[in-house]
Amino acid sequence: MFISIRRYAAGLAVALLLAGCTTQQDPIVIDSGSRDPGTQVARGGEVLKLTGAGIAIGQKLPATELVDATTMKPVNLAESQGAVLFLSIVPSIDTKVCETQTHYLGEQGDKLPATVKRITVSRDTPFAQARFAKEAKLEDVQYLSDYKEGAFGRSLGLLIESSRLLARSVILVDTQGVVRYIQVVPDTTHLPDMEKAFTEAATLANRP
Predict the structure, then answer these.
(1) pLDDT tens digits for 34-64?
(2) Where would you tag: which of 20, 64, 94, 197 has the fewest CB atoms within 10 A of its CB?
(3) Radius of gyration over alpha carbons of the chain, in Å?
(4) Residue 21 catalytic?
(5) Which of 84, 98, 105, 138 is catalytic?
């Protein structure tokens, strides 16, 4: 059973503070709500429009190119077969909430079935992603960068029009490349419901 993400986030925030990695701020909020891709999200009350047509449950993942932070080679997730894809999508790994989300994916997600592939996607450069993975000791997560043109984010309706960053979200894709779960967090300063996503991912992995 996964530990409470609220307890985990609180504990991680204290650890980061003691390590000098962050400053004392308001507690991180866990949000179980979701917005539709391609509509809008918010940040501290500011409305942020999302660009792109948006993806829906039951659709195939679009064919777009990302860059692997380790190999620097192009990756097309639409060509992935045989694994459940757990896509943890963040605006930037160098922020408190994104760091907490990625730590949770890496440290608690190792309890997921081996057929679940954990992936962090952001518009950070591959070099920044690789540095983060090494410093955070989270190298069992795959890091994919949408830094070139934001084509991946745009194809899913998750590219923020004003900042050109990706909206915080979790997307699960089954072994046939079909999207089965989406949470686009309504406020980008909040964490997604990772525990619910883990449960959904495990169910997909155990499906005949």
Answers:
(1) 999 999 999 988 999 999 989 999 999 999 9
(2) 20
(3) 16
(4) no
(5) 98
